Amino acid sequence: MRRSVDEHLEAVLGRVTALPPFDQPLMEAVGLVLCEDIVSGVSLPGFDNSAMDGYAVQAADLADASDENPIRLPVVGEIRAGRVEPIVVTPGTAVRIMTGAQLPRGADSVVPVEWTDGGTVDVHIKQQPPLGASVRQAGEDVTAGEQVLDQGVVLGPRQIAVLAAVGRGRVKVRPRPRVVVISTGAELQELGTRLGEGQIYDSNSYTMAACARDAGAVVYRVGIVDDDPKRIMDTLYDQLGRADLVITTGGVSMGAYDVVKEELSKLGTVDFPQVAMQPGKPQGFGVIGADDVPIFTLPGNPVSAYVSFEVFVRPALRKMMGQMPYRRSPVRGVTLDGFSSPAGKRQFVRAAATSGDQGWMASTVGGHGSHLLGGLSRANALIVVPEDVTAVRAGDQVELLILDEETG
Asked: What is the pLDDT of residue 255?
């Protein structure tokens, strides 16, 4: 079976569904998609209060105040934030007040302490404030019954701020997908062990786990499973109870020991197309288990696995979380290097990209081999070369997928 990149992504997104929403504590909802409209049950502020430290007054009492002719008012009390005092500002008096404290009855303005001598028995005021100055009016930000957030918004710090301010300790959101990551291959060894002849460290499970966590998932890294068919299938089924999605790497090509492909093909629910892309040609995707848990079986070459995650798995996770758009939005830029590209395949070239006055500029890093992790570590973008382009010259306009949000 052969597919284009777009056809395979369409097949993936057509089978993955958004996770059902449920209530979560506020701090557990950061980064998740809100699934309800939020209507405030309170006004913000809930009462008239002072915007700064100073004195609550009636502004008309200070009509002639100046540096040369300060007006003296007796201080009849003090109000701190969080305290409600039965104090009334009558004409010709002042109340010492702190930032956030409720404005006393009778006061219509607040004089900043900087305009005074800071007195506690009497205060000398050198300037008349405008009527209503330094007073936060009740409901000027939000009124009770007002909708403050729309469903569909991703909850970041600013949205959490307003939810907390209106007293919402729990909200309905789509949860983080639980992703199980498994590496297969008899040649793989855990980090920290001594390598034998022909052995390599397992980088793929760490890479995929980091990618999934970066995409917002809860990750369970199972680690290495050798090429024993029974052990592979037993491990997969053992993990389904805590998985919303499974990622395996390795064992999906055309070789005699590609047991992941061999065993999962028997189920009839996982397809193994050859996708017209480089790197990442051998792909597997489908569902497994009674609950039809989506499973991605990605290539074993580390760069192929990484590119496959970005092109196919990240969009699936975003759909599961209800995040739009599903795919990274490409930008246009200029490549500073020339290189060839295979006919009929969409190539994803590792690049270091910067954004400046002249727009995006990208330089290729490392080679094109799907095993070359050193160049990948220096890349922050992928140059996307269409299937019908076989040569890219320095100075050409290209499409870029920016991998790091802080880039530029």
From this structure: 57
